[in-house]
Amino acid sequence: MDPTSKLSAAQSYQDEEIVEDQFSKAQQRYGEERSKRLRKEGNDQFIDISTDLSDKFRHFQEDPWVDASAVKDAHTMFPDNRCEVLILGAGFGGLMHAVRMVQAGVRPENLRIIDTAGGFGGTWYWNRYPGLMCDVESYCYLPLLEETGYIPKHRYSYGHEIRDYANFVAEKWKIAGSAVFQTKAEKLVWDEENKEWQVELVQRRKGVPAQTLNIRSKFVAAVNGVLNWPKLPGFPGILDYQGQIFHAARWDYSITGGSQQDPSLVNLKDKRVAIIGTGASAVQIVPHLARWPKHLYVVQRTPAAVDKRDQCETDPVWFKENVTTSPGWQRERTRNFHQHFNTQENPAVNLVDDEWTHALGLVGLAGNPGGPKSVEDIPAYLQMLQTIDFPRQDRIRARVQSVVTDPSVAKKLQPWYPSWCKRPCFHDDYLQAFNQDNVTLVDTDGKSVDRLTSDSIVVGDQAYPVDVIILATGFRTPIGCTPAENANLTITGRNGASMTEVWKRDGPMTQHAVLDHRFPNLFLCSFVQGSTSPNFLFAIDCNAKNAAYILAEAKRKAAGQPFSVAPTAAAAEDWGTQVAMRSLAMAALSGCTPGYMNREGELDRVPPEEQMKMARGTVWGHGVEDFLEHVEKWRAEGNMQGIVVET
């Protein structure tokens, strides 16, 4: 990668030997802090409550938001136990697949969208904690703004607005009536003779015995998201605690008081509260939470890197004059957003101009076309990334010192890892919360909580009695999981192939991440062999558009006959090779602080014989815009090269 333009800011910063010395010491500190957090259990240090078959953790994942009277009986939603397209997931991924398929000619009444939730929104349905907002500018993040004419109320939309917008999209494209909520797919089996999927569904409505349905669907889209299964910390005593406890993704306003729209947490006024975790959720929760309890303990394993956000209301006049300037404005704005960390040179104009677009080191996570071409190039590439990233992370550490008045607390809140190792955070009030007399940072020095007792959190030799515990401990990572595992179901394709088994053994065999050779008529929505973006909804929509295009073209070719559609083995093999050739650009993730992106450090321990398979199943290392150039060029050719339609 030619670092000339990317280094311009860094070069002005590094003009003294003392700065070079600081840089060297920072790299040493990064390694030391990472070592503190490495645990042999890896991802197993957490409890996956979504797959626990006992009742002991069930209350952590109960739906506090569902309106049982509004959930339709699944039997009535599948006439003749059939549908044309079954979409697994009612978040924005499912919505975008439904919208794009409707635009491609599928009638809304022939779609069915299922979800274990009680409504649309996905992560925005489940997460309703105080202070929830999107960290990507809403003018880029909310899809279909140009088509709907909707103007977001804030630069960064709050959670309840995003959920309302999801319902608005469902109504506008007449797919709201196609939803079957509190319903989960348990099993998919491909029927080669009839060219369709046999699907076992289970609906679990509140107050109603669970019911199983066996249906058939010509096509299935697996769009299950990446923030859908809350995880619990696996430290001892979590079930011994006798106070009130809940996960942040299932916020319990009956305990705290207030609501998402009015986060007046009046029930906590005389309580001692602990929030465990300091990731992206906690950064948004803490400023609101800190206003209410008698005392708040913020329990930290790894500090977040928190930059400014500059939240503001949207001026409709400004929006029309400066944002919606010409047809295609949203796509151009998003392209400009990506170009700040996906290309070798920043664009001359910065349309978004927020701190995402000034985080130069994010090329290490987002990918770029100028990455290393061989293993020998990796050391120089990593050094370049560290060099361009150091000024930002050093500024963020300095920001902590300038905001937090207690020097000892400020020191513990400083992040010592590169920008690309954890999702960057942005907030204007998080650090200030630690200046309040009723807030105590409990820093575990990378070790987490030792145990819970009936009434306390224990860290080291110190017990902290608390009345309420909030677990802001994040979600199960989809990295290293197959689409079947990510959806907690079994998928059996051609010739009895189990997706879990063949992906583990041979890796994925997709073209453009949308269709796997062994699982026809199953549209995937994953960054595996595809691409991603900090604006995750954009990446999802890329998959949705491609799936809708393939379905429409395949139906045209089949001329009304039942058919299967999938890539050839040769096309899938070629695509995997292309992915692997670009995988070296993602080398920076190796050696990161343990977390969501590297399965708590497990990816660093992949044996050499598995590394090539992992390279073939990673993301497109040249970034989302480069990925789209390939996919859109393929679509423009108009012959679906590599895709076979069999009747």
TrEMBL record:
UniProt cofactor(s): FAD
Single Gene Ontology MF annotation: oxidoreductase activity
Keyword check for Flavoprotein: yes
Q: Which residues form a coiled coil?
A: none
Q: Which UniProt keywords apply?
A: FAD, Flavoprotein, NADP, Oxidoreductase
UniProt-annotated stretches for the region Disordered: 18-37
Query: Gene3D superfamilies this protein is in?
Result: FAD/NAD(P)-binding domain
Xref: PANTHER family: FAD-BINDING MONOOXYGENASE AUSB-RELATED (PTHR43098:SF2), L-ORNITHINE N(5)-MONOOXYGENASE-RELATED (PTHR43098)
Please give the family membership noted in the entry: Belongs to the FAD-binding monooxygenase family.
Q: What is the name attached to this protein's record?
A: FAD/NAD(P)-binding domain-containing protein
